[in-house]
Specification:
The chain has 370 residues and is α/β, with parallel strands linked by helices. The chain is 43% helix and 12% strand. It has helices spanning 29-41, 55-89, 99-103, 113-122, 127-130, 137-145, 148-153, 181-187, 216-219, 244-276, 294-297, 310-331, 343-348, and strands at 16-22, 45-52, 158-165, 171-174, 197-199, 202-206, 226-230, 287-291. Strands 1, 2, 3, 4, 5, 6, 7 and 8 form an eight-stranded mixed β-sheet that branches. Helix 1 (29-41) crosses helix 2 (55-89) and helix 2 (55-89) packs across helix 6 (137-145). The longest helix has 35 residues, at 55-89.
Length: 370
């Protein structure tokens, strides 16, 4: 493969090219929105491809639509408009913070009567019975705010959306020409809440079960050797979960992270074995990076993934911007040169937050703002 086809250096004045892998996580996808906003702000960078799952898929298609409409600044404005619409649509949701959490300035929904009712109901009643009309507010949001024609003809960005085939359990990657509102809804379809999304005679659930997000489409990218994973789900937890809710939350985290860890291991192991065999990878080498502060996301209650209050989304947005700024300060020069992700270290113990401009973490059990 020619250097011009898959380079990590500067290209035609557009800056260093990177590919992004965006995890899902409900409202916590606003963290990724903040990361994207900071990356789009930096004219030293160009985003070549995005692989997204669930909330990551939504961020991906909104960004691609915005790029096609108005370049990087258009994408930043479009992302903000989309997340504000998400918040506006949730204003009348019965799942609201309890009076106690409001008094204590917590964003958790653990004590919300609406959340507790829906959580219990979802464990005994199928969404096919509970929601026979298959109503999904995200469908209206996508229809109103995303032009999928723009997404599929976007000249500067490739988009890959992952969903899980219910029948086979295998990932399905929706790529150029196949990215639709249905594929994004499939990628975000939690089986306890919504009926499976049917596309082409097959039924699909949340892509997090099989690829959160899928990396292999990015490995084949011809424009960049660098894959930057935006990780918003904790990989490591030091404390053993003991409450029923904490156990369920940790099971979901392990399940939704397992496919990502396997793909990362496969990439690292393959390249290591090739080097040991004396193979010169040259421009076939993939450089891996990760934007995260694992310790910071641990303070976010799992229930807060359903909290779409604007103040909370803005808090997450600013935190995500801080993560991206810290990563750029620490690793911009490494893009196109080497991997900055040490997988063994990352999985051995909880990674330390990067030093830089990241704002101080604000716990769900802490104050709403400074």
């Amino acid at each position: 493969m020619a250097a011009a086809e898959r380079g990590g250096g500067r290209s035609r004045g557009q800056g260093k090219r990177i590919n992004l892998a965006l995890q899902g996580g409900g409202s916590h996808g606003a963290l990724t929105w903040g990361v994207l906003d900071r990356l789009l702000e930096d004219d030293r960078l160009a985003i070549s491809a995005i692989s997204g799952t669930s909330a990551g898929a939504m961020n991906a298609v909104v960004l691609a639509d915005g790029l096609e409409r108005g370049g990087a600044e258009g994408a930043r404005a479009h992302l903000r408009g989309f997340w504000k619409a998400v918040s506006d649509a949730a204003r009348f949701s019965p799942i609201r913070r309890s009076i106690w959490n409001r008094m204590w300035r917590r964003y958790s929904l653990d004590d919300s009567p609406g959340y507790l009712f829906m959580e219990g109901l979802s464990r005994i009643v199928s969404p096919y019975d509970l929601n026979p009309m298959n109503l999904n507010p995200l469908r209206d949001l996508l229809a109103k705010h995303v032009d999928f024609g723009n997404v599929n003809r976007c000249r500067t960005l490739e988009v890959f959306i992952t969903a899980t085939n219910v029948r086979t359990g295998r990932p399905r990657i929706f790529a150029h020409g196949d990215v639709t509102a249905d594929s994004v809804l499939a990628s975000a379809c939690l089986p306890q809440m919504y009926p499976a999304v049917e596309i082409g005679g097959e039924a699909y659930w949340d892509g997090g079960f099989s690829g959160n997000p899928a990396l292999y489409p990015l490995v084949d990218s011809r424009l960049s050797r660098d894959i930057v994973v935006v990780q918003i789900n904790p990989l490591v937890r030091r404390q053993l979960p003991r409450s029923a809710r904490d156990i369920i939350n940790r099971v979901n985290e392990v399940s939704f992270n397992s496919s990502l860890i396997k793909e990362l291991r496969a990439i690292v192991l393959t390249q290591t074995r090739m080097r040991e065999a004396g193979v010169d990878l040259g421009h076939l080498e993939t450089f891996l990076h990760i934007i995260h502060t694992d310790e910071e996301v641990k303070d976010l209650a799992a229930s807060s993934k359903l909290n779409a209050e604007w103040d909370y989304l803005q808090l997450l947005f600013e935190r995500g911007r801080g993560w991206a700024s810290a990563w750029l300060d620490a690793h911009f020069e490494d893009i196109g040169q080497r991997s900055t992700l040490d997988l063994d270290e990352m999985l051995e113990d909880a990674p330390r937050p990067l030093t830089g401009t990241a704002p101080e973490a604000t716990s769900d059990a802490g104050e709403e703002g400074e």
